[in-house]
Amino acid sequence: MNKYLKYGIMGVISVALSGILFTSRYKKEVTHPLRSYEDILHSGVLRAVTEYNSISFYVTEDTIDGLHYSLLQAFAKDKGLKVEFTPEMNQEKRIEGIRNGSFDILANNELISSDREDSLLFTHPILLSRQILVQRKPTEHNDSTHIRSLLELAHKTIHVVKDSPSILRIQNLSNEIGDTIYIQEIEKYGQEQLLAMVANGDIDYAICDESIALAGINSLPQLDIETAISFTQFYSWGVNHHNTALLDSINAWLDAYKQTPAFEELMTKYYTN
């Protein structure tokens, strides 16, 4: 069975992973002492939170893989650290875990935007991507549900992951077209599950990072992901506002590693269809 068609159990899988395969210290109501970079080096463990998807972090049979999993492992190896990963599907919980000290780093496709700088310190950019409209390909020439122009989004309902930065973009787009676009936030699923929901006809429209959509399009050929709703944007990792030493270490390493064949191989693996 195609992994994108099993979105109904993906939330259960991610919960099971965080509870069984990986150590999770995250509890929303608990504030942990913020660990300095020196504390992290002394402990030998870097605590990371990420999203379970086919770009960031995933498990296939007995193997763990993913772009951000592999990239952070490379950083950790260079610094003599081990990484403790916790998959978390909820965006708000990932960011709250960084704020309250449960995690040291948010290793995921995090959109760099001014409205999020109150929550995170962003590393130097890791990749470029766009936010795109996910819809089904038209079944006939005059398919009324198929969006051919952003103006046609007026009075349509778009589904997004809860607390997604896409919400602000949709609100701005609504102002740009001078009409209402309705937003429905989905709490228990990630972007890949929204792709499957659109493909299966459960919802008509969703917003997704283009990188996630491209990773799934071969498995879901009925989807149309040709309509961008944003310009190309920078994506990076995030750390706590007070952990500037960790940020500086990651940035220095990223600047060097991005010039290596190993980084090029990773990008080719995850972004070449």
What does this structure look like?
The protein folds into 2 domains: 3-128 and 234-271, Periplasmic binding protein-like II (D-Maltodextrin-Binding Protein, domain 2, 3-Layer(aba) Sandwich), CATH 3.40.190.10; 131-228, Periplasmic binding protein-like II (D-Maltodextrin-Binding Protein, domain 2, 3-Layer(aba) Sandwich). Strand 9 (157-161), helix 5 and strand 10 form a beta-alpha-beta unit. Mean pLDDT is 87; it is low at 1-29. The chain starts with 6 loop residues before the first helix and ends with a helix. The protein has helices at 7-21, 37-43, 67-79, 91-99, 166-177, 191-199, 210-216, 244-257, 261-271, and strands at 45-50, 58-60, 63-65, 82-87, 105-111, 121-122, 127-129, 131-136, 157-161, 182-186, 206-209, 223-228, 233-239. Strands 1, 4, 5, 6, 7 and 13 form a 6-stranded mixed sheet that branches. The chain has a 3-stranded antiparallel sheet with strand order 11-8-12. It has a two-stranded antiparallel sheet with strand order 2-3. The protein has 9 helices and 13 strands. Helices cover 36% and strands 23% of the residues. The chain is of the alpha/beta class.
